[in-house]
Amino acid sequence: MTRPISLLFASALLLTGSMGGATAADEPIQPIPPAKITNAAQVELGKKLYFDPRLSKSGFISCNSCHNLSMGGTDNLQTSIGDHWQQGPINAPTVLNSKMNLAQFWDGRAKDLKAQAGGPIANPGEMAFTHALAIEVLESIPAYVAEFEKAFGSAGVDIDRVTTAIAAFEDTLVTPNSRFDKWLGGDRAALSAVEAKGYALFKDSGCVACHNGPAVGGASFQKMGVVEAYKTDSKAIGLAGVTGKDADRLNFKVPTLRNVEMTYPYFHDGAYWTLTEVVDLMGKLQLGKTFSADENAAIVAFLKTLTGEQPKFELPVLPPSTDKTPRPKPFG
User: 291: Cβ–Cβ under 8 A, 6 or more apart, which residues?
Assistant: First the structure.
């Protein structure tokens, strides 16, 4: 049962002043810790591979094409653009903080970042290459061969090392020190009264049942449309495509809400472009609740406090191709 709005507003005022004896550990959301780098050479190699379009058939598409690190780790398109301008079947989830997900992709078909990294390279609708051709490209470039040896301690380039390196880089793409994290850390002035009211509503309305933990999501699969059916033209069936169980139909990985103001459009079909629409729809479909305009605005204000420090790094200078490097085929 939700509390009356007057009590929610009172609790919001308390939240801006003190936690009333509670600590950050008592909250359903935890701060994001900074990245820890254990193998700098692998991270640097993975960064180059992440930005290298030569791992695609066209020589034009890289990991960063769909997971643009200047745009919240996504492409801000309803569905991504693949090889030969193919329309992707699903919205590209953000790569930021993706290390915290229980699995990768909306349907969870990859268990971790390493398992995910090899998929787009060989997907005919995305980078449209093959793993064998990708390795041929890398082996033709002496600077890459040397970097693989440095990163892994022995000579050799293979797809396992490619995906390990990309995952090592993606593992560093976290966004700590959001205003909400600072509030969790004890900075009472980090949230306004309206933002704190939005957080109180977010908790009391039941949003935290799915959107919790450091990533504010990503830790479970949930049915899209619990109280009311979700209407969409998308043919994606979610977890059922992996498990083969009809009970998992339209169960999708709960997306992280970190940096959510940057990762529009929303949902697996990318059908909604504003947080106001999303909050309204999620209230009705998942909670059976209709938020007032003021409640909606307060929750949206809270969600915007989840934007953290974006990853900062120097763009890689990619080693040049050689006479032996297979040529890209962008048009054929």
Answer: 201, 205, 279, 280, 283, 299
Average pLDDT, the chain: 93
Q: Which residue has the tokens 């929610």?
A: 8
Q: What is the rounded (10 degree) CA torsion for 148, 171, 182, 259?
A: 120
Domains (ranges, CATH) in the chain?
Answer: 5-30+177-304 (1.10.760.10), 40-171 (1.10.760.10)
- Give catalytic residues, as residue numbers: 126
Q: Supply the DSSP string of 271-327, one letter for each residue.
A: -B--HHHHHHHHIIIII-----HHHHHHHHHHHHTT--PPP--PPP-PPPP-TTSPP
Mean pLDDT, to the nearest integer, of 52-63?
98
What single DSSP character describes residue 68? B
Specify the pTM: 0.91
**How far is residue 244 from each of residues 109, 173, 235, 238, 332, measured CA to CA in Å?**
12, 32, 15, 10, 36
- pLDDT, tens digit, 9 for 90 and up, residues 112-142: 999 999 999 999 999 999 999 999 999 999 9
Residue 282: phi, psi to the nearest 5? -65, -35
User: Residue ranges of the alpha helices (H) in the chain?
Assistant: 5-17, 40-51, 63-66, 113-117, 119-122, 131-139, 142-152, 159-170, 179-184, 193-204, 240-243, 275-282, 293-304
